[in-house]
Amino acid sequence: MLKFAKPTIYISSVLVASYLSADATNAQIRNLENRVSALEQRKTSTGVINPSGRPEVKNGADLFITADLLIWQAHEDGLAYVTKGNSDTLYKSKTEELNFKWDPGCRVGIGWNTPHDGWDTLLTWTYYHTKASSTTTRDEDTLYPLFESPYYNSFLTTDPYSAHGKWRLNLNLIDFELGREFFVSKWLTLRPFIGGRSAWIYQHMNANYNGYEYLPPTTTKGLGIDPITINYRYRDRNAFWGVGVRPGLGSQWGLGNGFSFYGNTAVSLLYGFFQEKQHQYCDFSSGDTVNHIKNNHSTRTSSVIVESQVGLRWETMSTNDRIHFSISAGWENFVFFGQNQFNRFVGATEETQALFFANQGDLTIQGYTLSLRLDF
User: Which domain holds residue 42?
Assistant: First the structure.
């Protein structure tokens, strides 16, 4: 009996295990089928899989307006204007950069919550103006100008007494977005969007190198004739205009009681053109002016802009849900690739004086943003 009992127990165990395994597999299949069925029912009843997460007001015009206060600071590579060092060597020298300021700007927009699938549209205009400057004197050192043409600098027999650099920026952005905000969980919404951007970026760079002395070969200080003082001037204007696509993604991470974190990012690919106009000349103490360089340079190209935002938001409904209001405070960052197109002439001889290089760096803008939004 015992020798027949062991195989029977073994076969029974295998059958039970197979049954339990099959039952577990069937349960997983039923669970998946139930989830798919529930998802299909939800889609059938609501018309959408991911419900809209945008603010909804009652009996309104489905419009909203936005207003942002911008406190930003800009930086740009390649704007060093002078190097200060020992007259015999650049050992322990220092290259002087501009001092970039914090300045205010603004952004305003108007949007429409469309009746189609929870989509929304938004049109915004951003304006920002800023400047930077710096002044350096020679003291006991030597100043090496960085914006002067080396060819024309070779005719000056001394170094300048002082150097001054000044840069200005005017930025205008017009953006259009078509997006949809939807829930992916109870406290998280995403808003992918597509759209377009038009950008106008105007830059001016001035550099003054003052106090060169030039003594004509037919005169001497011993005769009581003063040397001529020369101030070298560099003036450059760099303008960019472009238009192109701008896709991006916004997110809102709910905390409760109307508070949430938000994070947005976007990339713009613009096609446009740069136009650069440069003028280099000398002012003499005699009142004369001698022009050295007047150069125009235009080129068509593509330009990339990357941007991001992070911050804290609070929002509420009022007037029996007829008005939605939100206020946000955060940090914003832009990178405008290849925006420094100020030409640098580098040739030091008559044969090479027309040699130049451009595309010296990127323009970055970053700072604080205070935003208001009203839906009605």
Answer: 1-47
